[in-house]
Specification:
Layout lengths: L7 E5 L4 H5 L2 H10 L4 E7 L14 E5 L6 H9 L5 E4 L4 H7 L5 E4 L4 H10 L10 H9 L28 E5 L11 H13 L3 E4 L6 H10 L4 E2 L6 H9 L3 E5 L2 H8 L4 E5 L15 E5 L22 H4 L3 H13 L2
Parallel strand pairs: 1-2, 1-4, 2-3, 4-5, 6-7, 6-9, 7-8, 9-10, 10-11
Helix pairs in contact: 2-6, 7-8, 7-12
Length: 332
């Protein structure tokens, strides 16, 4: 790409929280390479806060979840004068939006066949696969530097609170979209009690969908605080920033912790690191049960365990996670 000059670039990544956060190192690299270029970003409205205050972008274009604005948006893109479109979503919706745009279009390659082989036949062609962040950059033809990290920019009104808080506060993030990506509720409770017993403080973190779960867990842990929000990303980030470490599942909040450079202990169940979604350039520990031949059973998660035993999560006990967490926060 560096042999060309692009005056106006459009990046498309419509969803979800983690996927959009993982595009931010690419934005840093693109701005470094094309300092005077206009860089716009198309994202679904409910994930737009991830990029709302990113100074590397010229324009943030929002797409409604129901697609009701698709016709007008398509017309806007066709008239946008883009010289390069980087489609990191690469699905039917993003392809339909870019159809007819008179510009160079590059698309993210999803490794669909390799993922199918790993999930269904346990043939692993992804052993040395790069992170999704690096693959985004590869799709765009741009090189990342060592310092290009996942980042969330906070509004100026929140900067006064953007500080590291209690070095004994541990944040628990029990949510994930799919059941098989969620560590057991009773295990989070047991871990929380173990943390309290060892003089740590505990808070629960999550969005609207996790509010009830966070409340149920916090009630069972003496002194725990429920900091879940109604999907207020900045408020959640401020509360997360006050923790010395985060325990979470393979979820968007895992990537949010990385964006805030908070050490993270991530518990993987039905998914594996080979899919490329793991903490990027952040102090972290991925905790998983590697003794099972049925993992992975999905690349995105399932609503139930197909084997009915759910050992990928059940076999990871609270004391195991506690030990990993202590090693993580004791690292210098």
């Amino acid at each position: 790409m560096t042999s060309f000059t692009f005056e106006k670039i459009l990046i498309i990544r419509l969803s979800s929280l983690g996927d959009v956060l993982l595009t931010t190192p690419l934005l840093t690299a693109l701005r470094r390479e094309y300092q005077s270029c206009q860089i716009d970003f198309l994202v679904r409205e409910e994930y737009s806060d991830v990029l709302r205050y990113n100074p590397l972008l010229n324009k943030l274009i929002k797409y409604s979840k129901d697609g009701s604005d698709a016709a007008n948006l398509k017309k806007e893109l066709e008239c946008g004068g883009y010289t390069l479109v980087i489609d990191l979503q690469n699905n039917f919706r993003s392809r339909s939006l870019t159809l007819g745009i008179n510009s160079k279009v590059v698309r993210f390659y999803k490794n669909t066949i390799s993922k199918f082989l790993l999930v269904n036949l346990k043939i692993n062609l992804l052993k040395n696969s790069a992170s999704i962040t690096e693959r985004y950059a590869e799709a765009a033809g741009i090189k990342l530097n060592d310092g290009d990290r996942v980042k969330l920019y906070l509004p100026e009104s929140d900067l006064i609170e953007n500080k590291q808080g209690d070095n004994k506060m541990i944040g628990l993030c029990p949510g994930a979209k799919h059941f098989t990506k969620r560590w057991l509720k009773e295990y989070y409770i047991e871990l929380g009690k173990l943390l309290i017993k060892n003089s740590f403080s505990v808070c629960l973190l999550g969005g609207k969908d996790e509010k009830d779960l966070c409340e149920q867990i916090s009630k069972e842990i003496p002194g725990a605080i429920n900091h879940s929000t109604d999907n207020n990303l900045f408020q959640l980030a401020i509360k997360m920033k006050q923790c010395s470490a985060i325990v979470c599942n393979d979820s968007g909040l895992m990537h949010l912790a990385s964006a805030l450079q908070i050490p993270v202990a991530a518990i993987f169940g039905s998914t594996v690191k080979e899919f490329g979604f793991f903490p990027y350039k952040n102090r972290s520990s991925v905790i998983e049960n590697n003794s099972l031949t049925c993992r992975p059973c999905s690349h995105i998660g399932r609503e139930s365990c197909p084997k009915k035993h759910f050992r990928c999560m059940r076999d990871i006990e609270p004391n195991d996670v506690f030990k990993q967490l202590i090693n993580l926060i004791s690292y210098e």
